[in-house]
Amino acid sequence: MTGRFEGKTVLITGAGSGIGQETSLAFAEAGAVVIGIDRSGEGLSATSVRLASTGARFVPLIADVGDETSVPAAFEQAAAVTGRIDCAFNNAGITQSSTLAADIAHEEWERVMRINVTGVWLCMRAEIGLMLRQGGGSIVNTASFLSLHSMAMQTAYVASKHAVLGLTRNAAIEYAANEIRINAVAPGGIPTGMMAQSLADVDEAGRDAARKAIGDMHPMKRLGTPREIAQAVLFLSSGDAAFVTGACLSVDGGWAAL
Ligand code: NAD
Fold first, then answer.
1. Å from CA of 76 to ligand 1 middle
2. How far is Cα 16 from Cα 20, in angstroms, rounded to an integer?
3. pLDDT in tens, 50-89
4. What is the radius of gyration, based on Cα positions, of the chain?
5. Which residue among 131, 198, 243, 247 is least packed, with the fewest CB closer than 10 Å?
6. CA distance 171 to 245
7. How is 164-194 classified by DSSP, letter by letter?
8. How far is it, in rounded angstroms, from Cα 134 to Cα 84?
9. For a substitution probing ligand 1, which of 114, 115, 194, 233 has the most ligand atoms within 8 Å of its CB?
10. How distant, in Å, are the alpha carbons of 22, 78, 91, 94, 130 from that of 160?
């Protein structure tokens, strides 16, 4: 895998934790210049430390992907790093509290949609503009097994992840003839900051049991790893996927097949 992305510039949102951090590391190991966007400076510092041993260039940018002003400003800085963005991974996202559909606070609904849907669209808008000017590129969005399934008490999150799939597929057909490929990766349960947050109300003893119970929901009877998602993102971003656009690659231990 080493060198597969030598000479390429990759932009990753949500690069400060979990799947985004691991994918940053995988791209760095493969020789890419990595630009990491996150709203958490602390998270980006941790990513920077993890990437240091690869020798790859890592450029951290603090921005809120759901903010209409800060996204174009961050992309202006990103575009100045090497003059291009060959691959983008729109991955930043948040979860919701466990709440029935009719009881979700309007403010929480707006927050989930702003970050998970508008955030992906704002980044795609900037990326597509750049990629049209440079003559092509690849975009991967983080969908979810909940882009294809439902889950009680998760209506806002499920709706947002269904929307990410719609955004991916529709934009993919619009720009397919412009050498811009747009795909989604749909992870199953992955132990990251997001999962820890979902289990924050469960006591220490119950947390392991809860993680095991989530793992058992997958046909493979386990959770996935951030690296397993990163590998799928690298495949979709690479020349090996040159004829793949508008696809949703499930990396979920078989969940999508249920
Ligand atoms: P995580 O919480 O570990 O990482 C998410 C990162 O996104 C954090 O660093 C956070 O600071 C950043 N972020 C959040 N809102 C942001 C904003 N407005 N602007 C910029 N950065 C922001 O979680 P993760 O599991 O690695 O999540 C990554 C993606 O994977 C999300 O889109 C999530 O919905 C998706 N996903 C996760 C799972 C899972 O089980 N963990 C399953 C399916 C899909």
1. 23
2. 7
3. 999 999 999 999 999 999 999 999 999 999 999 999 999 9
4. 17
5. 243
6. 10
7. HHHHHHHHHHHHGGGTEEEEEEEE----SHH
8. 7
9. 194
10. 23, 26, 13, 10, 25
